[in-house]
Amino acid sequence: MRQRPSLPLRPALRTPLAVLSAALLVLLAPPLLSSGDGSAGGTHIPGLRFMVPNTPGGGYDITARTAAKSAEDADLADNIEVFNLPGAGGTVGLSQLVAERGNGKLAMSMGLGVVGAVHTNHAPSSLADTTPIARLTEEPDIVVVAKNSKYRTFDQLLADWRKKPHALPVGGGSSPGGPDHMAPMLMAKAAGIAPKTVNYIAYDGGGELLASVLGGKVAFGVSGIGEYLDQIKSGDLRVLAVTSAERPKGLDAPTLKESGLDVTFTNWRGIVAPPGLSDSERDKLTGLIAKLHASQEWKDAVKRNQWTDAYLTGKDFGRFLDTQDKRVDTVLKELGL
Amino acid sequence: MTDTPTGPGGPTLAERLRGRSELGVCALLLILGVLVLGDALTMDTSFAQRGPVGPKTVPVVVGAGLLVVAVLLAVDVLRGGRGEAEGGEDIDLSAPGDWRTVLLLAGVFLGNAVLIQPLGFPISGALLFWGSAYALGSRSFSRDPIVAAVLSVVTFFVFDRLLSVPLPGGPLMGVL
Amino acid sequence: MDSLNSLLDGFGTALSPVNLLWAAVGVLLGTAIGVLPGIGPAMAVALLLPVTYGLDPTAAFIMFAGIYYGGMFGGSTTSILLNTPGETAAVVAAMEGHPMAKAGRGAQALAAAAIGHFAGGMIGTILLVFLAPTVADLAVDIGAPDYFAIMVLAFVAVTSVLGSSRIRGFASLLIGLTLGLVGLDRLTGQQRLTFGSLQLADGIDVVIVAVGLFAIGEALWVALHLRTRPDQPIPVGRPWLGKAELRRTWRPWLRGPAIGFPFGAIPAGGAEIPTFLSYVTEKRLSKHRDEFGKGAIEGVAGPESAASASAAGTLVSMLTLGLPTTAVAAVMLAAFQQYGIQPGPLLFEREPDLVWGLIASLFIAMGLLIVLNLPLAPVWAKLLRIPRPYLYAGILFFAAVGAYAVGGEPLDLVILLIIGLLGLLMRRYGLPVLPAVIGVILGPGAELQLRRALQISDGSLTGLVNTPFAVTVYVVIALIVTWPLIRKLLPRRTEARP
């Protein structure tokens, strides 16, 4: 450290001066270092922040960062700060969001996983406490087996599964309550199999699950479609069914409905805001997301990430959240969670 | 420890106290064991379980292990066994423990946890550094606060601005 | 050789001035980020992802690779100097590295770590070039019973780090296992030891435990017994590795990849278990076993080499299978998808320029990193010359920054302090802290794999021993455990030798 004995100050003055300059530094430097918040015209919401309720690199994180970047590139916003508040499947972030009542400069990216996590964690706040803004994207789940599996069609698999559900381990990339857990449980219910007898094995994401499916450790895997496209194209994985209502583009596999199971299921992601917003605050956020959704930048990003557009706003999104919540609740109750 | 265990006939009072203080570790392990076992046994296990190992099994094994180790350690301590305090370059075991410094450091650290959100990181971080340095014997009042403030502000800048890992900026953020 | 030709083409791509520049940027960023507390390579790549949209994919991945390997180099720096590991791969580096630094051998510890990373990364990347498809096929066959067998092996190895008092070592291990239990059960979603707190639902991070026990615990323990003597800076010592040290380190450097590379490639691999296994292996094989815990250079060289080799192994399964085995790989996979590239079985055919350019750039990044880090070692070591109050205040400060930066939760700071106080107590009463950290690493993994294996076999215990791999590992364990007995039964001549 530098000592400055030549300073023409009496020692008695040095201490208060040092403390004073230190105090000024910590108080004033941070706000002065931060760039100005810019103009407030049009869709621009100065100081808008996106909360991500899971870790960097996860699904909600990429959704939020992509949305922020696209909005900036399309000149709909100046500088949206994206921050992570991970924990308990997104419910830590959700609780924080609900606590920020009336804050019109905050939004959170979320999805079906948060709905389940609210139940499994017995979280104090639920999505009904938030202001729904919009659903943005969705992704169907697929039922996959390795290329050397004895199951060639979904019917063969279903026949065996009905006979001895406990002997067919089902792998999924999410913990209980998450999307990959919900899908096989809903399938089992529709097929007349008690969800409790389903031998579900939770893996830490689609990657870890992939190895188990390829290696034949589980009878079949249930996961999001995007992660496995390449393995399907190369023939290492065989898709037996997709969970969406219609066959997705570029994938030759029957839907569950075509296979005789009356289930449709998609994993989706969207944006919610804190409760207690004024109408104008809510309209401003919804307006920003509407403009974002219409922008070329966002359309390119959706294409680049191989997402499926599933735009739904405001009250409709609120009702959708409600039905999703009920659906998850029934399944988890039956499982005793 | 520098003193050697004496025969069962005549331990001094100080030695007996020192021997007993290690029983506190046994008590801690015991409490921990009871806590783990209690938590495991009150767990609701209606969820489908395959085979002999469910969500309770490992906590029960760990809890029981804690109880066993607590008892074994207590026996060892009562027989005169003694944990060897860790030595090191900066450590002088012959001096009596300076609990005041430890409490001061723990207090400063806790203060940082409490103040970081209302006052912001630059202030709470600077207080943490200065307070710790003070507790550890640094008495340069003209230098320490400046060092602490600069370190804290630079760290804030690197994390919040350069890496966009948000840290709370303080009460004046958005005002200036 | 086919792959050799492709690799040469790859060097052509990677050695273009622009790509070379990005490699350098990545390496510098990675080292800097590795040194910063709380930000591991995974977070760094995720944060930089939006910035790289404008780059072409090859340049972006060359930069990411530099950050990944650079983060490994930088991560061990704080472990060694400040006893504050920034990420799980660097936890083991603190165990021998920090005592070395305190004894004035910080530069040697840093150099041993840097060369270890270089050797591990180089060997790992060479294995990546030639063995990628084979290793990838084998990795898929490793299942839950095999993982559990490896975990049992690791638990057997823990006994060699329990310290002089077995009971106290076990007490420490059980404390670690207890900390590892906290959180939502991954298979059934049951709350365990969370006391209704959402913040505890994800469990307590290994890094928080390691920083709490190592850094905070040590700072408080030193404060309790601070040597009152005229302020004497820690000696810096010789900056380079001497002949005696090189003789002790070259074997660990070469052994590290043998442990690290396969672990990186398997789906539930990561760097924690291989670095720990490398540590105990070096301890067993070392002629200076008594120095372990007080600053044995083998304990830095081996694990660091294993850590970098496991990073190369991670890339094998990511590039050939599209299988992310660590958080960094998962983020890089997301990055690939951003560019509309799907890593997986078809990647080598579809994007040969990108893949081989990336692999070539790994070699270049390694070269840049060793050139950057070796001269830096003595410079970093001089950091320890600052006065003691500043040194320990700085350790507390950076530990707090790291714990807070990850989740933005003041509660994490309180947990860190409580674990730090636990570390103080353990030091006071001679409970070794290492088994506790190992317990947090191994406990949850072992339980998960055990229960997963039993679920797959629908509850039958034969599910634990139904693969040749698992059986082999159990035979090895049986041999290790019974070895002292066997040795007694063997003819005398083995005992005649000292």
TrEMBL record, chain C:
A Pfam family it matches: TctA
Domain DUF112 per the UniProt entry, residue ranges? 20-437
Q: Which UniProt keywords apply?
A: Membrane, Transmembrane, Transmembrane helix
By its UniProt entry, which InterPro entries does this protein fall under?
A: DUF112_TM (IPR002823)
Locate the transmembrane regions by residue number. Answer: 20-49, 61-82, 109-132, 144-163, 169-188, 200-224, 315-336, 356-377, 389-407, 413-442, 463-486
Which protein are we looking at? Putative integral membrane protein
Write down the species: Streptomyces himastatinicus ATCC 53653
